[in-house]
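Hello support,

Our group uses your service weekly, and this is the first time we've seen a run hang past the timeout. The protein is Syntaxin-12. I'm not sure whether the cause is the sequence or the server load. Input pasted verbatim:
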Amino acid sequence: MIASSVSLTSLALVWKSWDKHGTVRGLHICGTLPSSICVSVSKQQIQKRVEEPQPRDWSGLIQVCSGNIQKISHNTGQIKSLLHQLGSDHETSAPQDKLQQLQHYTNQLAKETNQHLKDLGALAPPMSPSEQRQQKLQKERLMSDFSAALNNFQVVQRRAADRQKETVARAKAGSRTAGDGDLNDHLVTFEKEDEWGQAVTQSQEPGITVEDLEEIRERETNIRQLESDIMDVNQIFKDLAVMIHDQGEMIDSIEANVENAEVHVNKGTAQLQKASYYQRKSRKRMCVLAMVLSLVMVVLIIIIYQALK
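Update from on-call engineer: The timeout came from a worker crash unrelated to the input. Re-ran successfully.
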């Protein structure tokens, strides 16, 4: 098995390791540890970590998405730095391996964030219109930040793919120059096991070694993985466009409900004003009637008093 180890930065890395036939043999995680320390974990441990309960409430999902977006932006900057190291006169396999690992890990973060955004859309909205507006603004800001981070990440993804292809092309050109011309047909791709076996057999010719073939095969495997990750990001962009469209419809629904509520409030206010007007008018009538009755009573009392005299 061909295992990989790198000098660590202050972020976690997760990557796969392959054997010479391109079969995934294990996963590795590097965390915030001292330099050049790598921790390998079993598939059972990885599965246990994947099966850990994910946040399902609004605040928990928002917090995880925000953290992932920050990691994506940070990792994109790290990938840019690694790209500057590729193609130099002192190039080694370490930057290539670290770039591949970091790129794939960042791609997994993007997929996880995309799923969490979908989970946000599946949550029942709050009853209060003010809370609905607040959540709408939070999600809008989150999707905007995620889209910007994805754009930057995809740019460095494509640049990394181009650099990987250039590296493979240089390796193939060197092998063709140093080895027999008959090897040209075996240095394009190694999709099948028999092609790999034939290439290894012919590598006994002077000028090319098994290590050269293994390096070329590994680079081509990395390129295929990188292209697959780029397709994943394209799909995430499509999902994000759908979510933005759905968010717009939800916003229209919220605004319509708010407008309806405002109409009802205005109608209620008008009715209250009318009721207040009628109440004041009724009070005036009662006052006038009371004054008339009082006057009649006074007149009657005077008449009765005069009659008794």
